[in-house]
Every structure is written in C-alpha cells, then in structure tokens.
C-alpha cells in the first residue's frame, strides 16, 4: 500500500513532502471516490518524516484552492502565481529529457531542468517557455528544497551516527515546522499556522 511504502521510506531516512491537494476543502472530508492515492499523501503527515504542505497567495492568505486541516496539513508555502517551465519551443537534443518535459507534471519539468551536479540544464533553460501556475504542487517543491538543505546540513551530526535513519527525517520535519513564520489566520488551516522559512530552519 501507499502507506507502507511511505512508512518504509521514512524509516530509511527519507523526508516525504506531500501536497495538500487543490479541492479547497478540509482534507479530512474530501471524497476522492475511492482513489486512496489522491488523499493519502497529505493525511500521512501523522508519520514522523512526512510533511504536508498547503498553499498561500502572495498576500499571505490561504489560497482558495488549497486543501487544509489543522491536524494533517502542517505548514504552507507560496503556491499562487508561481512562474514555472511548461513547454519547450524546440527539442533540447536529449530524447529522454525531451519526452519527460513534454509529458510530465510541472514539478517533474522543474526537476528535469536540474543536472545531477545541481546546475541548470542550459538547453532546457534556453528553450523552455515559462507560465504562471497555481497549486499545492507548486508549494510542495519549495518545502522540499528547504528540507533538502536542512537534511544536508544536519545529516553528519554526531547524534545521528548509529541512530535510526528515521531520526534524521523526523528532525528535518521538526526544524521546518518549528521555525515557520506565523501568519494571523492560518492557524485554523495549518498545524503551525505559518509558512516555511529557509533561513529559520537552517539556523
């Protein structure tokens, strides 16, 4: 099951960042018509290494499309009017990347633009067309990036040597959720009542 897969990943030290969904409803009450995959990631935030993310507008309000729940959805990130690559003006020359970019979800397209060494793929960058999109799937990658930076910073700490890998994932989650910037009104929608702040989580 998805639950078992996510649990196994977190026990091995992975931090799983889940988008809350774009129904504009309390995630606990959304009827997904039996599609457990659609709902489960956001509600699996009860696990130590899972972070569920809602979306806010540029003004700092919960985005109208963002699902919410103060128990399951822990924090928010910008997810409204996010500029992302959506298509290529011409093939970049790598058949695998070209195919991925034409068919993939926008978050995968963003990932495709990054080389393994962390630099931009200049061909994809050169030929990509950017558009403004909305969605918790645009907010979640922001939290993923912060989580990755925190993970890289703390993973070699002495206290984690010999400790269960899940301790690192749980600590990353704690550092992100404990160091949000609180925004009035978000406390009824998200557990922390705030948005992720990279500099706070890293320091």
Topology:
Elements lengths: L1 H10 L4 E4 L16 H8 L6 E7 L18 E4 L3 E7 L6 H9 L2 H7 L9 H6 E6 L2 H19 L10 H14 L2 E2 L11 E2 L2 H5 L1
Parallel strand pairs: 1-2, 2-3
Antiparallel strand pairs: 4-5, 6-7
Helix pairs in contact: 3-4, 6-7
Notes on the protein architecture:
The N and C termini lie far apart (36 Å). The chain has 203 residues and is an alpha/beta fold. It has a 3-stranded parallel β-sheet, sandwiched between helices. Strands 4-5 form a two-stranded antiparallel sheet. A two-stranded antiparallel sheet has the order 6-7. Helix content is 38%, strand content 16%. The model has no long low-confidence stretch (mean pLDDT 83). The radius of gyration is 17 Å and the shape is globular. The longest helix is centred in the C-terminal third of the chain and has 19 residues, at 136-154.
- Distance N to C terminus: 36 Å
Low-confidence stretches: none
Give the strand line-up of the largest sheet: 1-2-3
Task: Tally the helices.
Answer: 8
Approximate strand percentage? 15-25%
The H/E string reads: HEHEEEHHHEHHEEH
The number of distinct β-strands equals 7
Key phrases:
3-stranded parallel β-sheet, 203 residues, 7 strands, alpha/beta, single chain
What's a quick, concise take on this entry?
With 203 residues, the protein is an alpha/beta fold. Helix content is 38%, strand content 16%. Strands 1-2-3 form a 3-stranded parallel β-sheet, sandwiched between helices.
